[in-house]
Amino acid sequence: MFSLFRKRENQLVVPEWANFLGSDEYSRFLKSLDKYFAKKGIVYQISEGVIYVKEDDFGFNQLGLANVAQLCKLEGIGKSDKLVENHFEGLIRAHQFDTRFKGFVEDFGKVKEYIGVRLYNDNYLDQIGRELVIAKNIAPEINAMLIFDLPDSVTSIQPQQAEKWDVSIDELFEIGKANIRSKYDFEISEEDLGNFKVWFVQTDHFFAPNILLELNEYTKMIGSNGSLIGVPHRHAVIVYPIENLEIVKAVNQLIPTIKGMNAEGPGSLSSKLYWYKEDGFIELPSEITDDNQLKFMPPEAFVDMLNLLDEK
């Protein structure tokens, strides 16, 4: 067993891909990997957030580490042994099911129940190849993509697979949305962030962002001037209904909150703040400067809306 990392003055140097972990946390994470792969008798290497193994039970020889490392950070690094084991054992089960699934993937009657929709960012689609997926852009940087929601994995539906079913893409998206809606619940709560309240959607599953696909049905979360929306990762959505100039406080606090949650993950989606109206999602550009100052550059339509708002 060996891992690729360096030590400096007896302290482990944390690579950029794992910068959300402290040195001790990263060390503990590596030990959990060593423990798991030693138990499996698998020799591996780590480089740039990818673990390289011989293609065997996993079905791949390159396995990403960022999401499982983010999960260990979120759940507590002391639980990393179990979290690492659960993650990689899930990959093995997924590979085994996928092997069987390929035997009937052309039979729409058999695969219909597994069709779903999940939201991904532009970078993910560019990484795997947009020509290999079926996706619709629903907001700047965010796309709804057709997937197979399998027992231990989520995989993209490829265009050539869908062509053999003789079902329209629009119908597949409706089937996918309905399947996810029927399988998974959203935990929606109103949370006090000090100076204002937000609606907070959180889930243990991967589909919290799917609420964006039917947000207009959640009328309590939509203000008379729309809502501010944050979709930092697959487990959370933040919604602030816009009614008055309290929105100024909300913008100043939500931007760094969303960026921080996005950096922590797991399953990071977008660090952006959006303005939701009946006609869709509009990006509200911002950045946090090196001296920790917030720069907010909203579009003209958003400024016009602000000018019409009352204090209360």
Structural class, by secondary structure, is alpha+beta
Strand order of the largest sheet: 10-11-13-12-14-15
Number of contiguous helices: 9
CA-atom Rg in angstroms:
21 Å
Order of helix and strand elements from N to C terminus: EEHEEEHHHEHEEEHHEEEEHEEEEH
Overall pLDDT metric: 91
As residue ranges, the low-confidence spans are 1-9
Helix percentage range: 25-40%
Shape type: globular
Strand tally: 17
What is the terminal separation in angstroms?
63 Å
Query: Largest beta sheet, briefly?
Result: 6 strands, antiparallel
Strand content: 25-35%
Describe this structure in words.
- This protein has 312 residues and is α+β, with helices and mostly antiparallel strands.
- The chain is built from nine helices and 17 strands.
- It has helices at residues 23-40, 66-75, 80-101, 108-111, 122-128, 159-163, 169-183, 247-264, 300-307, and strands at residues 7-8, 11-12, 45-47, 50-52, 62-64, 115-121, 135-139, 142-150, 153-156, 187-192, 197-202, 227-233, 236-241, 273-277, 280-284, 286-288, 294-296.
- Strands 10-11-13-12-14-15 form a six-stranded antiparallel β-sheet, with helices on one face. Strands 6, 7, 8 and 9 form a four-stranded antiparallel β-sheet that branches.
- Helix 1 packs across helix 3 and helix 2 (66-75) crosses helix 3.
- The chain is globular.
- The termini are far apart.
- 29% of the residues are buried.
- The model is unreliable at 1-9 (pLDDT under 50).
